[in-house]
Amino acid sequence: MLADPYDAILLDLDGVLYRWPEPVPGAAEGVAALRKAGKRIAFVTNNSSRTPAQVVERLASVGVDAKPEEVVTSALATATILAERGTRFAFVIGEEGLLKALTDAGIRIVNASSDDVDAVVIGFDRGADYTKLKDASVLVERGVALVASNADPSFPAARGESWPGAGALLAAIETTTGTRGEVFGKPEAPLFERALASAGGGRPLVVGDRLDTDIAGASRLGWDSALVLTGDARPEDVESSPWKPTFVVGDLSGLV
Ligand SMILES: [Mg+2]
Fold first, then answer.
1. Which end of the chain is more exposed for a tag (fewer CB within 10 A), N or C?
2. What is the pTM for the complete model shown?
3. In DSSP terms, which residues pair with 163 in a beta bridge?
4. What class has domain 8-46+186-255?
5. Average confidence (pLDDT) over 81-108
6. According to the model, what pLDDT value does residue 160 have?
7. How far is the CA of 218 from the centre of ligand 1 (A)?
8. What's the 112 CA to ligand 1 centre distance in angstroms?
9. Cα–Cα distance for residue pair 2/24, rounded to 1 Å
């Protein structure tokens, strides 16, 4: 089977396993077949709003069996890296997944009036408002580091709607301050590297539905990738994309 040469399969969620709230047909069976073939799996998502336990629940509701330790979110990658850098106090625009990942990593969440702020951390936040964007911008103007769990321009909501994503919130602060944020999620390397480590290393195959995040990130790292056609990308998009997947498959069953 196509997945044979690989040790670790790094699976994107949205557009690969589900198009929320609908399961992607064949996805649950595909994951089960990969497991049966002895592949180690990481469920890799740019969405920072959910905790691994919440992601596992969501996967279970579309029939995909997963364990929290197999889930790697951009929030976890962000928290790990910031903790390694010695970040102690963060001002955060983000939801529970990001807040919990940061606090679990020993980073304290502070408000904008705190004297000690080492980083402004941006993630997807449905409660973001002008005050939060203003406070974040003022901190960045004072020289506090600006980082983001991911820079997805939009969030794929139900009924095919696109809502402002973490990248849209980040852009508001970048536009205000003229400072570019550092991004840890796809297509940047940190999230992929953490996902491979969590899957035990070896030779990775990145599986995703987006050329500009999943496939771009894999190619930059020199890793093989499989584009599935159950989400964002259409077959004709591959032609015009600067990022070429190693394989194009209709859905996950194409890997097995
Ligand atoms: Mg996706």
1. N
2. 0.93
3. 155
4. alpha beta
5. 97
6. 77
7. 14
8. 33
9. 20
Amino acid occupying residue 87? T
Q: Cis bond leading into 21, ω under 30°?
A: yes
- Are the beta carbons of 246 and 206 closer than 8 angstroms? no
Mean pLDDT over all residues of the chain? 96
Q: How far apart are CA 133 and CA 131, in angstroms?
A: 5
Q: How far apart are CA 164 and CA 153, in angstroms?
A: 6
Q: Which tokens hold the place of 49?
A: 């709003």
pLDDT tens digits along 209-241 = 999 999 999 999 999 999 999 998 999 999 999
CATH superfamily for 79-183 is: HAD superfamily/HAD-like (3.40.50.1000)
% pLDDT > 90, the chain: 94
Q: With H, G, I as helix, E, B as strand and everything else as coil, classify residue 22.
A: strand
Mean pLDDT within 194-201: 97
Taking 90 as the threshold, does the pLDDT of residue 86 lie above it? yes
Residue 214 is classified by DSSP as I
Give the distance (Å) from ligand 1 centre to CA of residue 110: 32
Q: Does 8-46+186-255 match 79-183 in CATH topology?
A: yes
Q: From CA 187, how far away is CA 70, in angstroms rounded?
A: 20
Task: Give CA–CA dist 253/24, Å, rounded.
Answer: 11
Q: Give the Å distance between the CA of 19 and the centre of ligand 1.
A: 9
Cα(51) to centroid of ligand 1, in Å?
Answer: 17
Query: What residues are labeled active site?
Result: 12, 14
Domain boundaries, the chain: 8-46+186-255, 79-183
In contact, 31 and 64? CB cutoff 8 Å: yes
User: How do residues 25-76 score in pLDDT, each as one tens digit?
Assistant: 999 999 999 999 999 999 999 999 999 999 999 999 999 999 999 999 999 9
Q: Are 20 and 50 in contact (CB under 8 A)?
A: no
